Amino acid sequence: MRLYFKIVFLLFFVKSFAQDTIPTVVRDTLFYTKIDSLYREDQFYFGLTYNQLMNTPAGFSQDGISTGISAGFLRDMPINKRRTMAVALGLGLSYNKYHTDLVVSKVPNGRVYGITDPNSFSRNKMEQVFVDVPIEFRWRNSIPESHKFWRVYAGFKVRYLALGKTKYVASDETQVIINNPDFNKLQYGPFLSFGYNTWNFHAYYGLNSLYKSAQTVDGDAIDFTTLNIGLMFYIL
Question: Got the DSSP string for 196-209?
Fold first, then answer.
């Protein structure tokens, strides 16, 4: 009778253990790795984008390739039992650069804006560094045994402008303006990321203007919004 109870207990233990583990073979030796059924997809992210300015005034053009880079961390909070749906809140930094023919010049009572022939200068760029706070609604077909899965993450991002800079370089002059007060400090807009495993398509659209509404060029309001399109890499 004791032997019978020992066999039943052993079978129950092996069955319970098997449900929570997956086998791994290394050099003909069998190991077991415990499955984390309460896993989170906490992730560092790294993004590369091409930046396009929208709602531009007449005669305006972008010159060259305008790029962006972003990085940060997202805290994953699953909301269903299978953990395929979640909400994530994050914190990060982003840097965006734009090459344009819109020149900002200092004058005694402030700043003036004008569109200049691209052939008349060697460099004219706008740079911005933001502190980003993204919130995402996440869907993925992940399982505890693998970190490779399809994902669709949609969300909303609030950005605070930490540093803004414009630089104009011509043969006879150079103008640099740092932290131009005409910039809108607060930016916000929706974004979407989708893909498989590490590689994901990413797009963000700014809902409000990069500049305050009072700024004009040749009578047209400078009402730039930005569209950032590129790749997002998620790293556990």
Answer: ETTEEEEEEE-SS-
Cα 131 to Cα 94: distance, rounded to the nearest angstrom: 7
Domains of the chain: 1-35 (no CATH), 40-235 (2.40.160.20)
pLDDT digits (tens, 9 = 90+) for 103-159: 998 888 888 899 988 888 888 999 999 999 999 999 998 877 776 889 999 999 999
Q: Out of 16-20, 93-97, 101-105, 215-219, pick the least confident.
A: 16-20
Bigger pLDDT: 40 vs 160: 160
72 alpha carbon, distance to own chain's centre: 8
Measure the CA–CA gap between 96 and 234, rounded to whole angstroms.
20
Alpha-carbon gap, residue 157 to 132, rounded angstroms: 7
Strands (E), the chain: 21-26, 29-34, 43-54, 67-78, 85-99, 102-107, 110-115, 123-140, 150-169, 174-178, 186-196, 199-205, 216-217, 220-221, 225-235
pTM, two decimal places: 0.79
How far is C-alpha 32 from the chain's CA centre?
37
Burial environment of residue 71 by CB neighbours within 10 A (0 to 12, 13 to 18, 19 or more)? middle
Examine the pLDDT at 48 and tell me if it is beyond 90: yes
